[in-house]
Structures are given as C-alpha cells and as structure tokens.
C-alpha cells in the first residue's frame, strides 16, 4: 500500500491555503470529497477539542452558511473518529451477517465497499481520509490488526481488506462536464435550501466557537421546529479559515448521547502525495471484478487471483448512486423534518411469527412493537433516530419521526 500522506501533510497545518437479496448488484457511491461523505452520511465526533474557545470575529448564521457554500477546498488529509449510537440491540455475529446481506454484495467479497462501510452504522471507528479533487479520494477503516481501504483514482475504484487479503475492483462514473457542474452546484444548493427553511421548519444559529483538531471553528446549530421529528439538533463545527465542516454531531430529541458523532482528530489542507492514491493488488490476493452484468442484471462478479493469467478487468458502467428522491415505488408524505417515505413491499401478512418464520421470525418480531389503527395492524421497529412501520398488508412507512406520526400517516393513507 502507498503511504497515506505526503511528508508535509502529517501534522495539523493551520495556515496552509485550501487547494431482497444478497445477490443483487453492488451499488455504492464513491465520495466526491471525503469530507462530503463524513458530513452527509455520518458527520464529525467531538474531536479532541482543545480547552478554551477561540476568540473569533462575530458572524451571522447566514454568513457562516455562505462560507460553507463558498469553500473551494480540494485537498485534505487527516484522521476521523466516528461514533454511532442508533440504540440498536447487540446482535453479535448476526449483526455482521445482516449488514452484509443488506449490502447485497458481501457474499462475493469481503472487500466490497457497501457491506464494509455499513459497519460505520454501529460503534466507534477510526478512519484515515485523503482527497485531491473530485477524481482522487481514499478512505481507510482502521481495525484491530487489520485495515480496509477504499481508493478512488481516476476511473478505478479499489476496495482492499487486509484481513482476508481480498480486493474489489470497480469503475467510477465519467459523466463529463454535466457531472462537474452538478458537483459545483451542490454547496450553493445546500446553503440556499437551508436559508429558505429557517423561518418555516428550522432554526439556524451560530452557537459560539470551538477548537477542533487544532483548528479554530464556528459552531453552527440547526434545530427542527416541527413537532413529530425525532431529531433534536445538528451541530456542525466549521473551520473558520476554509469553511470546511470539521465536526458533525446529531442528537436525538429524546436526549442522551449523540446518534452520530463524527469529527476530525487531525487534519491538514496540504496536497496529499500522488502515491497516496496508488494501488495494485497484492500478490496472491483474490480480486473480484464488478462486471457490467452483475451491476445491471444481478449477475455474478468475476473472480481471479492477483497475478494469474485469468486476470482480465471487465469495466462496466461504473458505480451507481445511493437511493435518491423519486426512487422507484417510493413516495413521500409531509415535508421537512416530518417527512415520511412510503413504499409497498408486496409482501402480505406482516412480520412472520415464530411459528411462520422459525427462530429468526420470532426474533425479529420481538424487536418490534405491535400497533393497530384504521389501517389495520402492523409492527413498528424503532431506533433512537429512525422509526419504521411495517403493516400487515405489506406497506412500509419510515422516517426520522415518532411512532405516533407513522401510525397517523398509515391511517390517513388508508
């Protein structure tokens, strides 16, 4: 593996300039910027905050949001701590299997990205990240005695699991200028949408300052005004110099520990060494190719041993995106924080009982709460943030809202 950082990017550099089934096709989104992954999926922990708050010039919430939107940082590297507490029960080895099955590609390769990154949905993890523009990113998940790395370098996407010595290879999207323009517009769209929501569904304020990973930062606080959401507040520490989010904490309305607490413990805005993003499969590693057939039609991925004569890369049309608004069969009720996604699974009869589904059916049923209403009967599965109602006629209502809100939506939908 190549060294992770350039020699001049190993410490904090405060004054540098910013420059359903397991056989379904693997679909994952390589981050346009590693910070974007942290902020959008998991956000950033109380990252070794220094004592005492920095004395920074006064700034309004609108000015701070605009500062984030105008940030043009293209290069960075550092260490991120991720702490996730959704309140899920400890399922032991079963949890790993369920996450792998949900990813749809874990049964083919332990290096497949989606299954591996789903591990971030539980517990405490340490990541090392690096980015050099939209075409080069690296994210490494440090485990006890092992490391998993996801590398995007140009058109190639590599996943490597050192524990199993397995490699996963895919091809990144190449959407040309339209995709580039879309990437450039995202921060501005975020800022515009957030500012529009301030007087309606959301209160946004600047909640003081902080030190994060040795950097001076402003604290932006976002609090929902709507009554049915389970979200208490989102706090984002924003680098005072670059406008880059350094820390993201989401706390539930019910109180207690943060649901998502993710943040840089060390960061540099120097350009990472080009070798950071180099990767070649180690000798003897099993390499799994994401083929066009697997991605588009659910076919198998090709496998070979690194260095063997059978090694013939078969690039497809690249990784797909995450679920988006307007996904097939999904519609949304309500707006803002109280939004509820609804879709029909087509499976009648609700959750299997112990008699119907054996030990697994009884176990899953025990995790939910039975509910009833005008819609009929169903089961609500709850975490500290997201709740989901599965009705006996096969419909699913899910959102960061209360159980009562889901039942009301199901009744109105009937």
Q: Reading side by side through the largest sheet, how are the strands ordered?
A: 7-8-9-10-11-1-2-3-4-5-6-12-13
* Arithmetic mean of pLDDT: 75
Derived structural class: alpha+beta
CATH class of the largest domain: Mainly Beta
Gross morphology:
globular
At the fourth level of CATH, the homologous superfamily of the largest domain is Lipoprotein localisation LolA/LolB/LppX
| Residue fraction in strands | 25-35%
Tally of alpha and pi helices:
8
Helix % is 10-25%
Query: What distance separates the N and C termini?
Result: 56 Å
Largest sheet: 13 strands, mixed
Q: Quick one: how many beta strands? A: 19
Radius of gyration: 22 Å
Low-confidence stretches: 1-51, 91-107, 292-301, 308-327, 354-363
Order of helices and strands: HHEHHEEEEEHEEEEEEHEEEHEEEEH
| CATH fold-level label of the largest domain | outer membrane lipoprotein receptor (LolB), chain A
Can you walk me through this structure?
With 414 residues, this protein is of the alpha+beta class. It has 2 domains: 7-275, outer membrane lipoprotein receptor (LolB), chain A (Clam); 330-413, no CATH class. It is 21% helix and 32% strand. It has a 13-stranded mixed beta sheet with strand order 7-8-9-10-11-1-2-3-4-5-6-12-13. A hairpin with a 3-residue loop joins strand 2 and strand 3. Helix 2 runs antiparallel to helix 5 (176-197). It is globular, with a radius of gyration of 22 Å. It starts with 33 loop residues before the first helix and ends with a helix. Residues 1-51, 91-107, 292-301, 308-327 and 354-363 have low confidence and may be disordered.
């Amino acid at each position: 593996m190549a060294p992770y950082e350039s020699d001049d990017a190993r410490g904090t550099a405060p004054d540098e300039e910013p420059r359903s089934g397991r056989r379904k096709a693997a679909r994952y989104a390589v981050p346009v910027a590693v910070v974007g992954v942290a902020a959008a999926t998991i956000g950033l922990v109380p990252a070794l905050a220094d004592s005492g708050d920095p004395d920074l010039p006064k700034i309004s919430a609108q000015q701070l949001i605009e500062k984030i939107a105008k940030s043009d940082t293209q290069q960075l590297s550092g260490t991120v701590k991720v702490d996730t507490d959704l309140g899920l029960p400890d399922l032991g080895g079963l949890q790993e299997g369920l996450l792998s099955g949900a990813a749809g590609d874990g049964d083919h390769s332990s290096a497949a990205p989606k299954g591996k990154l789903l591990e971030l949905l539980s517990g405490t993890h340490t990541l090392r990240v690096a980015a050099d523009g939209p075409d080069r990113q690296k994210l490494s998940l440090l485990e006890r005695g092992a490391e998993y790395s996801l590398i995007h370098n140009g058109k190639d996407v590599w996943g490597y699991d050192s524990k199993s010595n397995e490699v996963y290879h895919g091809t990144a999207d190449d959407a040309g200028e339209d995709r580039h323009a879309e990437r450039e517009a995202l921060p501005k769209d975020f800022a515009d949408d957030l500012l529009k929501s301030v007087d309606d569904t959301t209160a946004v304020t600047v909640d003081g300052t902080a030190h994060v990973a040795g950097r001076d930062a402003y604290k932006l606080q976002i609090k929902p005004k709507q009554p049915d959401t389970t979200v208490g507040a989102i706090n984002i520490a924003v680098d005072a110099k670059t406008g880059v989010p350094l820390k993201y904490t989401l706390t539930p309305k019910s109180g207690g520990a943060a649901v998502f607490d993710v943040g840089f413990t060390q960061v540099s805005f120097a350009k990472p060494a080009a070798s950071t993003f180099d990767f070649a499969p180690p000798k003897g590693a099993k390499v799994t190719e994401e083929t066009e057939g697997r991605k588009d039609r659910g076919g198998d991925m090709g496998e070979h041993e690194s260095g063997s004569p059978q090694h013939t890369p078969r690039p497809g049309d690249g990784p797909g995106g995450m679920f988006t608004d307007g996904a097939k069969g999904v519609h949304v009720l309500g707006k803002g924080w109280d939004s509820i996604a609804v879709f029909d699974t087509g499976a009648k009869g609700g959750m299997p009982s112990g008699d119907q589904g054996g030990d697994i059916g009884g176990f899953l049923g025990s995790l939910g709460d039975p509910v009833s209403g005008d819609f009929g009967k169903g089961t609500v599965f709850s975490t500290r943030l997201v709740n989901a109602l599965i009705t006996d006629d096969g419909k699913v209502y899910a959102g960061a809202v209360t159980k009562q809100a889901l039942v009301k939506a199901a009744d109105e939908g009937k």
